[in-house]
Amino acid sequence: MPRTILIVDDHPSIREMVRIALEREGFQTREATNGAEALTSFRGAPADLIVLDISMPELDGLSVCREIRKFSTAPILFVSSRDEEVDRIIGLEIGGDDYLTKPFSPRELVARVKVILRRFDVSSNALKDAGAIKESSPEDTHATMSGAGVTLNLIRCEARWKDTPVVLTATEFAILKAMMRWPGKVWSRTELMDKAWDMATTVSDRTIDSHVRRLRQKFAAIGASPIETVHGFGYKLSDGR
């Protein structure tokens, strides 16, 4: 089935440009002209990904993201005319998956959308590539990875700390899955970037740090600490206690 993208921007010309670019690639699209309309649309019929403008009147994109993250992990690609690093970091830390600065080319936007959706994809090819997956039995159709007290369900894109569910974004899930493939390995930011992002997409060290910080906050909220910093090198899975 074609994937549906919700385009949220108060500028008609930008919505049109994004819509045409995505539909040429086979995506279905819906549009919202402001944040409130976007929330109503998404609650009524969730989309596979949201292209979300930050600077909108009344209810801005950051507020929309915060509301959506209360009930959904659908990927969010922020777009904004503001190119300040603090804006990108805030967007990522509240649950965005990527950030694109205006003006942008339609080809770059489509490439970013595909990369984000690829991370969210749990096709059979992705399952075969996951090193520590337990083989599922006829009675148990869940392909899982376990380590450091964390269990990932690769079919449902669900994470659990022992018996407690942890709601992750697509990017957070991809980072954690990469780390769980080789327990005990110290991961540099570059290595995590290569595993969680498409090689054609460049992200900064601060972007990786923001997503890892967000992961830690979510686990800390339930009393867990599965990710350890190795100063001067990067990150690794801890014993989770």
Walk me through the structure:
- This protein has 9 helices and 11 strands.
- By secondary structure, the chain is of the alpha/beta class.
- It has 2 domains: 4-120, Rossmann fold (3-Layer(aba) Sandwich), CATH 3.40.50.2300; 124-240, Winged helix-like DNA-binding domain superfamily/Winged helix DNA-binding domain (Arc Repressor Mutant, subunit A), CATH 1.10.10.
- The strands form 3 sheets. It has a 5-stranded parallel sheet, with helices on both faces. It has a 4-stranded antiparallel sheet with strand order 6-7-8-9, with helices on one face. It has a two-stranded antiparallel sheet with strand order 10-11.
- Helix 2 runs parallel beside helix 3 and helix 5 (106-120) packs across helix 7 (170-181).
- The longest helix is centred in the C-terminal third of the chain and has 16 residues, at 205-220.
Q: Which range does the strand content fall in?
A: 15-25%
| Termini Cα gap | 42 Å
Element order: H for helix, E for strand = EHEHEHEHEHHEEEEHHHEE
By CATH's scheme, which homologous superfamily of the largest domain applies?
Answer: Response regulator
- Give the CATH architecture of the largest domain: 3-Layer(aba) Sandwich
Per DSSP E runs of 2 or more residues, the count of β-strands stands at: 11
Write the layout of secondary structure elements.
Elements: E1 4-8, H1 12-24, E2 28-32, H2 35-44, E3 49-53, H3 61-68, E4 76-80, H4 85-93, E5 98-101, H5 106-120, H6 124-129, E6 144-147, E7 150-153, E8 158-161, E9 164-166, H7 170-181, H8 189-196, H9 205-220, E10 225-230, E11 234-240
Parallel strand pairs: 1-2, 1-3, 3-4, 4-5
Antiparallel strand pairs: 6-7, 7-8, 8-9, 10-11
Helix pairs in contact: 1-5, 2-3, 4-9, 5-7, 7-8, 7-9
